[in-house]
Amino acid sequence: MNILICIKQVPDMESKFKINAEKNWYDRTDLAWRMNEYDEYAVEQAVRLKEQVGAADLTVLCIGPDQVKETMKKALAMGCDRGVHIADNDAHKREPLEIASMIAGFAKDKNFDIVFTGMQSQDRGSAQVGVMIAELLAIPAVTTIVDFAFDNGAIHVKRELEGGGRALVKATTPVVLTCQLGLNTPRYPTLPNIMKAKKKELLTLAVPDMGGIGACQETAAFYFPERKGSGLVLEGELPDMAEKLIHLLKEKTGVLA
Amino acid sequence: MEFTREIYWNVGHGFTTLAPMYGLLLVAVAIFVLGCLKRIKVYRLGQPLERTDQLGKRIKNLLDNVCLQTKVFRVPGAGTAHALFFWSFFILFIGTTLIVAQADFTDLLFGVKFLKGTFYKLFSVILDLAGLLSIAMLSGLLVRRYLIRPEGLLTKCDDALMHGLLFAILITGFLIEGARIAVTEMDKPLLAAWSPVGLVVANILSGLGEAGLRTLHTGLWWFHLLLALVFIAVIPFTKFRHILTTSANSFLADLGPTGKLTTVNLEDETTERFGASELTDLRWKDIFDADACTLCKRCQDRCPAFATGKPLSPMLLVNQIGETAFNNPKANLIDTIGREAIWACTTCRACQDICPASIEHVDKIINLRRNLVLMEGEFPGEEVMTAMEQAEVNGNPLGMGYASRGDWAETLGIKSLAEDSDVDVLYFVGCYASFDKRNIAVAKSFITLCQAAGVKVGILGKEEKCCGEPMRKMGNEYLYQTLAMETIETIKGYGVKKIVTTCPHCFNTLAKDYQDFDFAIEVEPHPVFLDRLISDGKLQIKTDTFSCTYHDSCYLGRHNDLYDAPRNLIRAAGGQLTEMAKTRDQAFCCSAGGGRIMAEESIGERINIKRVQMAAATGAGQLLSNCPFCLTMFEDGVKGADVEAQLRPKDIAEILAERL
Question: Are strands A154-160 and A166-172 parallel, antiparallel or unpaired?
Fold first, then answer.
């Protein structure tokens, strides 16, 4: 089997975010970087599939500046066989269709049986890249999968639906699957695998032909929403807190009137 | 009248005595040697380890712990009885050796006798009293083991055999002496008086008549000889082996620095196995340790995990390794010992510190953890894996954004070394004092004290990262080394001369573990640093009386023997210190060492609550400590133990800052 896993490097969500000079995205200084959480599920599921079927080749793909290789190394340490880095310092400005066309441009002649990717990125969160890859490659896509089973060529996945419902979807290869929280618990790479990962192939490519697709949106502004009033946390002993609450309710609301 | 006695009286000096005697001795020694060789072969299954360097220090340890029984003596009662028994039995051994030396060598070959006159008198009376003391101590130990039966004491066939054999040797010895005296010395009261115990036995036996006494004597003499030879022969096969192994272990002991772990060479690309899951992954000393264990259970009695119902007994763990080595060497050690036991250790060192056999428990546990983490990617829980990943990304296990690490100090007028590296000391803040609200208060107090003393302090701010201690103790040597390298590079880059910590875990790591990475900058824990500022007159503290108890953190106490500096500070502040029952080197861990700060404690009682209850029992109003992990556990513990109102956990730095 030939499997592609698309991952993104994102800032740790606990980071101190600041707005960049162009006021269209966050500033890159003082950020800690990691693999997009949903992409970790994608990597883990691909590695598990390889462990199940034995004969599979896992290519992990990531778009961005040189520093994304650090995140790719984790995917390689988790069990991917080779890495493809599409060098693009402007990746953070790209809209989903551009990213998807880069990936499709790379993948079109490689005959991937399954493309795993996260259901969305933690930073931009558009949740479009996966389905757009499928469209550009003219293959089906199943989104937000929380369960995956592979049996002799047949794929059974469970999708998470609104309200906590589940849908069982059958599919055959080739297919794009976007992964949701709950699919699996990503492994912690073992030291021998970290060592091996250092020697795995990690190819850096220039931005491939995007088939004439260019930007068709523009981020007009980037800002933190204004704080409208704040919550109040009462602290102290229980009876005191009850007193304070009653006092507040009387003073600021009409519920006790 | 000559003060002496005839050696080989009644059994004869001739070939008919010596030939079978030495023949049997040869058999006993042969069995002994073969038994030892068989065990040595098993020790050699372990990995190589150099333990014969610093000979002077090792010989001193050997003499201290064997001849003086120093470690044995640390626990009164059984320890005292053992030491007294050892010394008296050792005297009996020397006595027997002197007899052999005279009868079969000096007298036989050169006609020289030295067991006569005053020397004989002393020889006789000392041996008599030593024999009596041996019997008394052995009886005491027998009563303890079989009647009192202290909780957790494992009694096996070996123990019955040892008691039986030793009693039989001692009693037959006195019966032989009694029979001889009854026949040869009853008319020489001045001579017999130098064998007081023998004389009592002689009086009891005297009714048997000379012929009866002589028959009894011959029979018992050969029986006593046989018992002594059995004793020699069974040493390698029974717990008697501890005479050799425990003694040898005090020579082979780890010479420190105390608690410094073995650094794994991660540069060596040929290594494919990390940590220990099989016997052959362990060092030979780890297998030897099992043979040195006497099951005295001192470790188990002090283990905080064992005391709170977790499936870890340091004693059992060491013996499971021994069982595996000798009975099932192919078995998987991790399955044999059990993951829950392996993860339960807080590396508090209470076991290793008290062990009279110089066994190294903590290294073994860390080695097993290394295998789980580095080879299997396993952790005690998902929360630990998350903390590890957080440390990889943000340089702290709490998952806080790295760039806000120095935010706590923003309003205090201190700068990061990036802004101003000309400082007296670098304050290595640590993760908890950087991010945890409660511990930020400690960091602020420490800064206030430094400023009051006119010390110019700098911090690393967002350049500081976790020192790697909790990760290392959890078995993640790779992440530890990654963090250590980064920290060392940062600190060295600023040409720092001196570092002060408020976290004993950081202190221990920077001061000891980093030595392996060529890091030799002076590091001092805050109680020592502040104690000197006060004694030098640079820091003035107003004495204001208050009642408190003090908890010795494991990493300042047992790992670094720092017990006095924090107590000096408490006194300087006016603290009326009521010590807990378990204090100083016997202190009970707070539960957060060994990387357990990152883990949920889901089995048994909670260790921190137990410790807080011990503190509350003193009736003191404040529970002082010197460690952010301890403080965190105690803040949680006072709630759990429901003593929040009467017991306030604080760091010593806070008590001092309140009294400027």
Answer: antiparallel
In a domain, B174, yes or no: yes
* B224's tokens: 């006593």
A40 Cα to chain B: minimum distance (Å): 12
Residue B348: domain span: 279-376
Computed over every residue of chain B, the mean pLDDT equals 97
| Interchain CB contact of A181 with B (< 8 Å) | no
Strand runs (DSSP E) across chain A, as ranges? 2-7, 9-11, 33-35, 57-64, 82-87, 114-118, 141-151, 154-160, 166-172, 175-179, 202-205
Choosing from B477, B499, B534, the residue where a domain stops is B534
B225 lies in the same domain as B96: yes
Query: Domain count of chain B?
Result: 4
Does the CB of A26 have a partner CB in chain B at under 8 Å? no
- B582 and B512 co-located in one domain: no
B74 and B218 fall within a common domain: yes
- The CA distance from A44 to A183, in Å, is 9
Which of A32, A187, A190 lies at the smallest CB-CB distance from B394?
A: A32
The interface pTM score, or ipTM, of the predicted complex is 0.90
Instruction: Say yes or no to pLDDT of A228 above 80.
Output: no
Instruction: Answer whether residue B391 is part of any domain.
Output: no
Contact A192 B377 (CB under 8 A): no
Give Cα B207 distance to the centre of its chain: 54
Instruction: Tell me how crowded residue A85 is: count the other CB atoms within 10 A of its CB.
Output: 19
**pLDDT computed for residue A211 by the predictor:** 77
Q: Are B141 and B229 members of one domain?
A: yes
pTM of the model: 0.94
Distance CA B485, CA B465 (A): 10
Domains of chain A by range and CATH?
Answer: 2-205 (3.40.50.620)
Does A33 contact B393 at a Cβ distance shorter than 8 Å?
yes
Which of B485, B513, B534 corresponds to the end of one domain?
A: B534
* Claim to verify: residue B496 and residue B546 sit in the same structural domain: no
Two structure tokens written together for B196: 């007081």
Q: How far apart are CA B223 and CA B169, in angstroms?
A: 9
Write out pLDDT tens, residues B420-464: 999 999 999 999 999 999 999 999 999 999 999 999 999 999 999
Q: What is the least distance, in Å, from the CA of B438 to any CA of chain A? A: 15
DSSP SS3 for A142: strand
What is the nearest CA distance from B379 to chain A, expressed in angstroms?
9
Min mean pLDDT across A222-226, B70-74, B214-218 is at A222-226
**Shared-domain flag, residues B63 and B174:** yes
Amino acid at A149: A
Minimal Cβ distance to B269: which of A34, A187, A195: A195
Those of residues 454-493 in B touching chain A at CB distance below 8 A are 462, 478
Cα of B49 vs its chain's centroid, Å: 19
**What is the percent of chain B where pLDDT is above 70?**
100
What SS3 string covers B135-201? HHHHHHHHHHHHHHCCCCCCCCHHHHHHHHHHHHHHHHHHHHHHHHHHHHCCCCHHHHCCCHHHHHH
Say yes or no for a CB contact (<8 Å) between A30 and B272: no
Residues of B in contact with A194 (CB under 8 A): 478
The torsion angle over the Cα atoms of residues B14, B16, B20 and B21, rounded to 10 degrees, is: -30
Q: What is the 3-state secondary structure (H, E, C) of B442-505?
A: HHHHHHHHHHHCCCCEEECHHHCCCCCHHHHHCCCHHHHHHHHHHHHHHHHHCCCCEEEECCHH
Q: Is residue B469 part of a domain?
A: yes
> Can you say how many angstroms the Cα of residue A11 is from the centroid of all Cα atoms in its chain?
11
User: Could you tell me which chain B residue has the CA closest to the CA of A15?
Assistant: B401
- Tell me if B351 is assigned to some domain: yes
Co-location of B124 and B42 in the same domain: yes
CB crowding B415-437: b at 16 or more within 10 Å, else e: bbbbeeeebebbbbbbbbbbbbe
Per the CB < 8 A criterion, the answer to whether B68 and B75 are in contact is: no
